[in-house]
Design a protein that fits this description.
By secondary structure, the protein is of the alpha/beta class. The protein has 19 helices and 28 strands. The chain folds into three domains: about 10-305, Polyphosphate kinase middle domain (polyphosphate kinase like), CATH 3.30.1840; about 320-500, 2-Layer Sandwich (Endonuclease, Chain A), CATH 3.30.870; about 510-680, Endonuclease, Chain A, CATH 3.30.870. A nine-stranded mixed β-sheet has the order 18-26-24-23-19-20-21-27-28, with helices on both faces. Strands 10, 11, 12, 13, 15, 16, 17 and 22 form an eight-stranded mixed β-sheet that branches. A hairpin with a 2-residue loop joins strand 5 (about 185-190) and strand 6 (about 195-200). Helix 1 packs antiparallel against helix 2. The longest helix is centred in the first third of the chain and has 36 residues, at about 70-105. It is globular and about 95 Å long.
């Protein structure tokens, strides 16, 4: 049956992706701490979702920010979100209690749940509370319409209902923040008879509430938390004004408008009503929680049994060609170099930058920075280059969400070292991941030996161990010149650039994508094979979706590998030739790959851009062609390995359900298969 809508709602589609993350926690083939990791990721994802996406809908309703939806549409979307989130919260608890906790027990690890400490732990829990926890507690009594008390976002609180001893008085209520920096969320208790015991700090406090409130009988105690609007809205400012304004906005992030009030679903209605009155919580802000919230903290759950209960990920491979050549400049001068992280080592990029820092022939280095690691080896290499007299220019995107402070402090450190810093472009984000190293022309040489680095992922050695990204190192003069033109654009020297090979958002990217899709349509309509394979993190732009619908109707065979948001509706008359695959596994699928069959003259691009409206219209993004036939074949093979995945892949159906891909073929877990494939190519 044809759906009444042509596009899934963006945020409802995202919830489908996050549910796929939750599905990993129920996969009994995984070690239990890998499954726990996915519970943590699910919770962390949901936190950010409420801070940004739900907050944006709330802003529309309150007329606080401009959006393309009406307040009525925002209210309908929020109602749909709440229904789905509540459903997923129940599923989360089912997985946690019926799957994870029993498996921990089988491994002789007991995580206390809803219970007081056993007799052999009572003294330890009491002493630990008195010595390590009690000094950091600051309970406050609360009243109805208690506007004086401010609840911080992302912090866990206990709300306590009690009554004075030996008195027939009304209930009194207290609010108490659970310490988060002074004590860990999980406390390891002494083992007993071969079993390890772990307790939430929440329960250690609960067990000792009578000593916090002497003179009171404790009626009940529940966990609450809130989420606040964490998005930062900036005017079109540049340079020092942008930095100063960003600092002010970051200080206000912690007191943003409420976007979620999460409460323990076991809380009695009259208790919840009191809290809503006390803190002026609207009914639409309520989201059911459980006894233990902030379960992204599960990432820190102690593992007393060690590596046997964790996922073993393969170590990044060395590339013999690069190691044997020695000089990265000589290696790239000889041929284009393709690197696939985390299967292959990110160290080669660090090596290239360090070689550039000390090579007397290097004159200039230019890099874009979106998200970098703390204490980054990439940044240290650039600072070394500046100290050695190289001209270094770094474009810093201050508007990289949740990395603003790190990016500002990193930029200041680089400026102090003499690096030229270019800050955000007004009204745009720069999401391109490119670098160029410019060298002196060698005596007698026809061309310079410059090098360009183009990637689908950030200059971040930490995420390069867990994000699956692809990068190209090339000395191709035309590609180097295109990257130079991107930097000229960022420096304000070239307001209307043209490019030979690169596709750059807001300039030639969308028109060229339209042309590439139209070419496949022409082939299909002429009776030839038309085929498109697109791998990305998000597909939201309706113009591009409509182009794919037209291609499908013309008979073009289309496979989409989309990790996250996907607003294209499959299995409809206008999309019958489109299939959507979602892969969630040990590495975060992050690479963007665009393949067009072109009657056998295959065109292949790697990109920083998803097909989201923001990427194609409000960012500077780059897509770069793979010109080397051997590298092109390798990447196409990798795409086909992912399409063959019948272990960790799901189909996305017309109802946004994640349908596990299962067939009678030999099992293919694509991330493991890609590792072995690349190993064979070395």
């Amino acid at each position: 049956m044809e759906n009444e809508y042509r596009y899934f709602k963006r945020d409802v589609s995202w919830l489908s992706f996050n549910y796929r993350v939750l599905m990993e926690a129920e996969d009994a083939s995984l070690p239990v701490y890998e499954r726990i990791k996915f519970l943590s990721i699910y919770s962390s994802n949901m936190e950010e979702f409420y801070e940004i996406r739900v907050a944006e809908h709330r802003g529309v309703i309150l007329k606080k920010n401009y959006a393309e939806e009406s307040s009525e549409e925002a209210e309908a979307t929020l109602a749909e979100i709440t229904r789905e989130v509540n459903r997923q919260q129940r599923e989360f608890q089912r997985v946690f209690r019926q799957s994870i906790l029993p498996e921990l027990e089988r491994q002789h690890i007991h995580l206390y749940q809803d219970s007081r400490p056993l007799p052999f732990h009572e003294a330890f829990v009491r002493d630990f509370f008195n010595e390590e926890v009690f000094p950091f507690l600051s309970p406050v009594m609360i009243q109805k319409d208690d506007i004086r008390t401010f609840i911080r976002d992302k912090r866990l609180y206990l709300v306590i209902r009690m009554r004075k001893k030996h008195a027939e008085t009304d209930f009194q209520y207290a609010l108490m923040k659970i310490p988060f920096s002074k004590v860990p969320r999980f406390i390891e208790l002494p083992p007993h008879e071969g079993t390890f015991y772990i307790m939430f700090i929440d329960d250690i406090i609960r067990a000792n509430l009578p000593s916090v409130f002497p003179g009171y009988d404790i009626d009940s105690c529940y966990n609450i938390k809130i989420s606040r609007d964490a998005d930062i809205y900036l005017d079109d400012e540049t340079g020092a004004h942008l930095v100063e304004n960003m600092r002010k906005k970051l200080k206000k992030r912690k007191i943003g408008a409420l976007s979620r009030f999460m409460y323990d679903m076991a809380m009695p209605p009259d208790f919840l009503d009191f809290l809503c009155q006390a803190f002026q919580i609207a009914p639409e802000d309520l989201v059911m929680g459980v006894r233990y919230n902030n379960l992204q903290d599960l990432a820190k759950l102690p593992n007393p049994r060690g590596k046997a209960l964790e996922q073993e990920t393969p170590s990044p491979m060395r590339v013999p060609y690069l190691d044997e050549t020695g000089s990265m400049f000589q290696a790239v001068k000889g041929r284009d170099v393709f690197l696939h992280f985390p299967y292959e080592s990110f160290d080669y990029l660090i090596r290239l930058l360090m070689e550039a820092a000390f090579d007397p022939k290097v004159e200039e280095i230019k890099v874009t920075q979106y998200r970098v690691a703390e204490n980054s080896a990439v940044i240290n290499s650039l600072i070394s280059a500046a100290h050695n007299g190289k001209k270094v220019t770094v474009f810093v995107e201050l508007k990289a969400r949740f990395d603003e402070e790190n990016n500002m402090s990193t930029a200041e450190r680089m400026e102090q070292a003499g690096i030229r810093i270019i800050y955000s472009i007004p009204g745009l984000k720069v999401h391109a991941k490119v670098a160029v190293i410019l060298r002196k022309k060698e005596s007698g040489a026809d061309e310079r030996n410059d090098i360009a680095y183009l990637s689908t992922g950030n200059f971040n050695e930490k995420t390069a161990r867990i994000y699956s990204d692809m990068a190209l190192l090339t000395s191709c003069p035309e590609l180097v010149e295109d990257v130079n033109r991107v930097f000229a654009l960022l420096e304000g020297k070239l307001p209307a650039p043209t490019f030979r090979h690169l596709l750059v958002a807001r300039f030639n990217m969308v028109p060229e994508l339209d042309r590439l899709i139209a070419r496949e349509i022409e082939h299909a309509e002429a009776g030839r094979k038309g085929c498109i394979i697109l791998k990305m993190n998000g597909l939201h732009d309706t113009h591009m979706i409509d182009s794919l619908y037209r291609a499908s109707e013309a008979g073009v065979d289309i496979d989409l590998i989309v990790r996250g948001i996907c607003c294209l509706v499959p299995d409809q008359p206008y999309s019958r030739n489109i299939r959507i695959t979602r892969i969630v596994d040990m590495f975060l699928e992050h690479a963007r790959v665009w393949y067009f069959y072109n009657d056998g003259q295959e065109a292949l691009y790697l990109a920083s851009a998803d097909w989201m409206r923001r990427n194609l219209s409000r960012r500077i993004e780059t897509a770069f062609p793979i010109l080397d036939p051997d590298i092109k074949r390798q990447i196409i093979d990798i795409l086909h390995i992912q399409l063959q995945d019948n272990v960790k892949a799901c189909w996305i159906d017309a109802h946004l359900q994640n349908i596990p891909k299962r067939n009678d073929n030999p099992p293919v877990r694509s991330q493991e298969a890609i590792y072995h494939y690349l190993k064979e190519q070395l």
